[in-house]
Amino acid sequence: MIHFCPLQEQLSDYYKHKNINPLDVPDVRLQLLQRTLRSSSTLASGVTSLKICSQTRDSCGTDIARTVSILPNLQYIDLPDGFFNADPLHSVLRQELRVNCPRLKYMRYEAGSEHVLRNLAHNRFWSALEVLKLSHLDLDCASLLMILASLPNVRDLSLVKCAKLDDSIFDLNPRLPYLAPMQILSIDGISNVTTAGLVSYCARSDVNLSLTSLSIADCTGIPTHTLHQILPLASNLKHFSVSEEVVQPFPITSTPVPPLASASLKSLYFEITCNLSTKSKHKRDPSSHYEYLAESIHANTLTGLRRLFVREIQFAGRLVIGTTSLDTRTPSQSPDASRALQIIARAPDDLAFLLGELANPFVQPADPLRPSPPTLTLPLELSQEFKTFAIAVKASLVPQPHSPAPWSGHAQKSILVRAEKVDGTAFLGGFLAVPLAKPVAPLLEAYTRFPPSIATRKESKGVWFKRRPKR
Fold it and tell me: CA–CA separation, 298 vs 233, rounded Å?
């Protein structure tokens, strides 16, 4: 249930025009919902998800507490921001959720809520939790393992900037509980976690089959040139994300670094950036890291990859031009010719954007001495007088069976474009409109009854009609 009406702004203007003191609409809606649920226990027991707009969450904490007290099967709820850092103002709401909503599946804990999280481990009142987000907590590895042992159903774990955590969270210590196998694991901003600890966790047989999504962000202990040790161990991994701000180029050693290899990986988010300063710009160029990624793709070791996100706008050109590895492939490495790789590239300044599809990037060339480069399909181009770094999505947003559209319906209607004239002067091109399959009717055309501010009533039929413009 979403407490939002698209005509709320127009009704608010009407009340101001008529000098009527408007009601607190979100609060009134929540009270009406609460009264409806109390009148029907069958309806209340069927509610499993409650979505509330941000203004209502922050201002109607007492009414939310009264509402959740009659929802015994609630699994997901939008909570105020202060709830996650143990704000005393939301203690009543927290107590109602503990007593009346034992089937919650999502919870988040932020800085200041360590004592609340420890209380969860002792009382076990939310044992059905499946998604747990921990951010900026002052917890050591032993305490965290004890807490996770009391939540046997957690399959999605996110650890963000928990400074005391290290590789011991992955150890098989007989005196402490083991970290359970996760389906989704996200590690962000924890420098003490290293590649060795993550390799030991992924090498476990139960984790090997369960882990489907792995995200690593700003972990200095897991550099780019060690990622090849992690991917082969997770045989069921579907999505892998790495985000890092590097200070050094990709290392060049006497023994070449093995390419990234995974047969199950479908989606790869590869965001390597650097802090470009005037003194160290030539030393902090992330292009060598993207060269390593391009060589891994050309080596045909990512056989199942279908979607690639990068933070280098020229990355598609690396795949089109190709490398020497295209010439040295053996016939046994030739993949399916019907493959297509969708590339979504974004510039480090977030002003340039490219979305294209690389058709048959790994087809074995007929003549090894003259390999035919793969073709890059750029869906929609701008006018000829601009040399653009931003290319929009496909002209038709209708999803295709083999390649679904990145945005469907009304989720995306424009794209930020950064363009450059022929003479080299750059400017911000603004928003490029995305064509739709069908024209969208105005919002009010979908309603049969109109508010009095834009309509007049015909007394004989009792139907609202749009007011005719004055001539």
Answer: 21
Q: What are phi and psi of 317, to 5 degrees?
A: -65, -30
Whole-angstrom CA distances from 141 to 196, 288, 341 are 16, 35, 40
Would you kindly state where each structural domain of the chain is located, as residue ranges?
Answer: 385-399+414-437
Whole-angstrom distance, CA of residue 270 vs CA of residue 291: 12
Residue 83 sits at the vertex; the CA angle it makes with 77 and 87, to the nearest 5 degrees, is: 165
- Rounded CA separation 461/370 (Å): 78
How far apart, in whole angstroms, are the C-alpha atoms of residue 189 and residue 245? 11
How far is the C-alpha of 265 from the C-alpha of 261, rounded, in Å?
Answer: 9
User: Is residue 3 within 8 Å of residue 30, measured between CB atoms?
Assistant: yes
CB 310 within 8 A of CB 271: yes
Q: Cα(151)–Cα(125) distance, rounded to whole angstroms?
A: 10
Of 86-95, 157-166, 428-437, 448-457, least confident by mean pLDDT is 448-457
Distances (CA, A) of 200 to 48, 162, 197, 337: 38, 20, 5, 36
Q: Look at the block and give the residue holding tokens 């009601």.
A: 23
Measured distance CA(286)–CA(51) in Å, rounded = 41
Which amino acid, residue 411?
Answer: A
Cβ distance 105 to 133 under 8 Å? no
Between the two ends of the chain, the Cα-to-Cα distance in Å is 44
Q: How far is CA 334 from CA 14, 66, 301, 337, in A?
A: 67, 62, 11, 8
Residue appearing with tokens 């127009």: 10
Whether residue 132 contacts residue 156, with contact meaning beta carbons closer than 8 Å, is answered with yes
Residue 240 in 3-state DSSP?
Answer: strand
Indicate the DSSP class of residue 360.
S
Closest alpha carbon to 310 in 234, 387, 192, 224: 224
The answer to whether 206 and 170 are in contact (CB under 8 A) is no
Q: Which helix (H) or strand (E) holds 244?
A: strand 239-245
Question: Which value, in Å, is the radius of gyration of the alpha carbons in the chain?
Answer: 27
pLDDT per residue as tens digits for the range 124-170? 888 899 999 999 999 999 999 999 999 999 999 999 999 999 999 99
pLDDT digits (tens, 9 = 90+) for 292-323: 999 999 888 998 999 999 998 888 888 875 54
Location of structure tokens 């200095």: 220
C-beta separation of 401 from 413 below 8 A: no
**CA dist., res. 299 & res. 105, Å (int):** 41
